[in-house]
Specification:
The complex is a heterodimer of chains A (about 140) and B (about 400). Chain A has a five-stranded antiparallel beta sheet. Chain A has about 140 residues and is mostly beta strands. Chain A contains one helix and nine strands, in the order E-H-E-E-E-E-E-E-E-E. The longest helix of chain A has 5 residues. Chain B is α+β, with helices and mostly antiparallel strands and about 400 residues long. Chain B has a single domain, classed as Thiolase/Chalcone synthase (Peroxisomal Thiolase, Chain A, domain 1, 3-Layer(aba) Sandwich), CATH 3.40.47. In chain B, the strands form two sheets. In chain B, strands 1, 2, 3, 4, 5, 9, 10, 11, 12 and 13 form a ten-stranded mixed beta sheet that branches. A two-stranded antiparallel sheet of chain B has the order 7-8. The model of chain B has no long low-confidence stretch (mean pLDDT about 95). Classes of the chains: A mainly beta (about 140), B alpha+beta (about 400). At the A-B interface, strand 1, strand 5, strand 6 and strand 7 of A face strand 6, helix 4, helix 5 and strand 7 of B. Strand 1 of chain A pairs parallel with strand 6 of chain B, so a sheet runs across the interface.
């Protein structure tokens, strides 16, 4: 799918710690293989047991809107024709304690509510330097009817 | 109570609208430090310590050489964030002089946002690729402290049933108090509740007037020991207690479940009240750094002033406005209406209240508290006691 804030909007600079999240096409969260602690953002050490035995696991791709906010002031020039847009904090099912940042797409920005169930969808983009394909996690409402 | 370090001088440059200063940022910084030394009755070559925060442009060594300091014995900056460390400057200055490491330590902060870029402009974030630490938010248009604090505030308001009028009360108090302060950038520009509600949204729940200004200016505070202060002409203002830090279960990665929503002031409050042996109601006048109004309310509650469910009533009906307010608050106008010198101007105002020199002077001030910026770790606070 095309990008919520425009196909030319800012992309993540890929690093070992953020590449799984932005390229796999699933919701990738870092887990500790020793103590099963889940953490986000990923880091070089487990915050639970201080081990280094970390891996990324695909979560089922659903979550809950923990908070959201409607943005009216376009900080970036590319956002001038995108306002108002909604930013959200999503708790990821299957990754206890882990909240990720994102947008809630495929709905009216003003309709997004705290507590709403959402599922992951992915924006396609290409890293201009490496030509690596990116799949950027986004979230859409789960129809509740 | 501690009281082994005292403030003996405060200084400021003129405060300007952002981009309005005819002077460079370094000239503003030097002016504030010179004014603080003059206020203290100190010669430049007596100063031997320097502290600032989030400042990569005005090196302490350049400052020391340029102004003719004596031997430098202390230079320090607190880690991480920005205005959250405004009161941590007093924590470090206190440690320096009460530990005998330096004699006269000056804390300063200077901003010239015409010469350099505005903090809230997202400047530096405009390139096509976000570095790892920012990559979790920037591709989603989550780019500014206003947006981060809005996400925190919305969830907190939702959980505790706090309404928009509570936010308005913070902004209105700052504007009301700034009308008494000729130094304030918003002096002569009163704000009504209607103006507040009609102002444009930046990011909900923040209207324009929920956000601090950005300004050009500088402030400085000089700290020494009570013994040295006896030889100086002015009133010395004791540092009764300081605190900076974060709780062991409060992480630095914002938005994670166990610390969301949070402003990093629970443990700072606990430390400052324990160290001073007082409680919130004992404090005569409060300066609480406003980056945005929502975080002010959250920090008030985390520090123990009231419960979140009570906060709307706690700040209502002019409870924070004027020198005789129920809780005299941000009496210079604060970051919202005096000037945004990254909160150090609020430490200056807290000192002024103890000296009896505020333009919105509360009667018989014995305890005056300045709290650093909420929402970013570490939090910080400094409590000043009766003048010597």
């Amino acid at each position: 799918m095309s990008r919520y804030l425009g196909d030319n909007f800012i992309l993540p600079n890929l690093t070992p710690n953020n590449t799984p999240f932005f390229t796999e096409g699933t919701v990738q969260i870092q887990f500790c293989k020793d103590c099963n602690h889940a953490q986000h953002p990923p880091d070089d050490i487990c915050y639970g047991c201080q081990g280094w035995n970390l891996e990324f696991r695909a979560c089922e791709g659903t979550g809950t809107v923990e908070s959201c906010a409607l943005v009216h002031h376009p900080i970036h020039p590319a956002l001038k024709d995108k306002i108002p847009y909604v930013i959200a904090i999503i708790s990821v099912d299957g990754a206890p304690g882990c909240n990720v940042q994102g947008n809630v797409v495929h709905c009216e920005a003003t309709s997004v509510k705290i507590g709403q169930k959402v599922k992951a969808v992915f924006e396609e983009a290409v890293d201009p330097a490496t030509e690596q394909k990116l799949l950027i996690p986004q979230w859409e409402p789960i129809a509740s009817e | 109570m501690h009281g082994q370090a005292v403030v003996v001088g405060v200084g400021e440059s003129t405060y300007y609208k952002h981009g309005g200063s005819p002077d460079t940022e370094f000239q503003l910084a030097c002016t504030a430090v010179q004014n603080a030394a003059k206020d203290a009755g100190l010669e430049m070559n007596q100063l031997d310590g320097l502290i600032s925060y989030m400042d990569t442009r005005n090196s302490p060594l350049r400052m020391a050489d340029a102004l003719g300091f004596g031997e430098i014995k202390w230079s320090a900056t607190p880690w991480a964030g920005g205005g959250n460390n405004s009161s941590a400057t007093m924590h470090l200055a206190d440690a320096a002089v009460s530990g005998g490491h330096a004699d006269y330590v000056v804390a300063f902060r200077a901003l010239a946002q015409g010469q350099f870029q505005r903090l809230g402009s997202g400047a530096g974030l405009m390139s096509g690729m976000a570095p790892e630490g920012l990559s979790w938010g920037l591709p989603y248009g989550l780019m500014t402290p206003a947006q981060e604090c809005a996400l925190q505030t919305n969830r907190w308001m939702h959980d505790h049933g706090v309404g928009q009028e509570a936010l308005a009360s913070i902004s209105l108090a700052c504007y009301a108090n700034a009308q008494l302060n000729p130094r304030a950038v918003r002096h002569g520009r009163p704000l009504t509740r209607e103006d507040y509600h009609e102002s444009r949204w930046i990011v909900e729940p923040f209207h324009l007037f929920d956000c601090c200004m950005e300004n050009d200016g500088a402030a400085a505070v000089i700290v020494t020991t009570p013994e040295r202060a006896k030889d100086l002409p002015g009133k010395a203002v004791p540092i009764i207690a300081t605190a900076q830090g974060k709780g062991p279960d409060i992480g630095i990665n914002a938005f994670q479940e166990r610390w969301f929503p949070n402003m990093y002031y629970g443990n700072v409050g606990k430390m400052i009240w324990e160290r001073a042996g007082v409680k919130p109601a004992d404090v005569d006048v409060l300066q609480l750094y406003e980056n945005f109004t929502g975080p002010v309310l959250m920090a008030l509650c985390e520090m123990g002033y009231c419960e979140p469910e009570e906060v709307e009533a706690f700040v209502a009906d002019g409870a924070l406005e004027g020198p005789d307010a129920r809780l005299p608050f941000n009496t210079s106008g604060g970051n919202i209406a005096e000037a945004y010198i990254h909160g150090l101007e609020m430490v200056v105002e807290a000192v002024r209240q103890v000296r009896g020199e505020s333009t919105c002077q509360t009667k018989d001030v014995e305890l005056s508290l300045a709290v650093g910026g909420p929402g970013y770790a570490p939090g910080s606070a400094v409590l000043f006691g009766p003048a010597l």
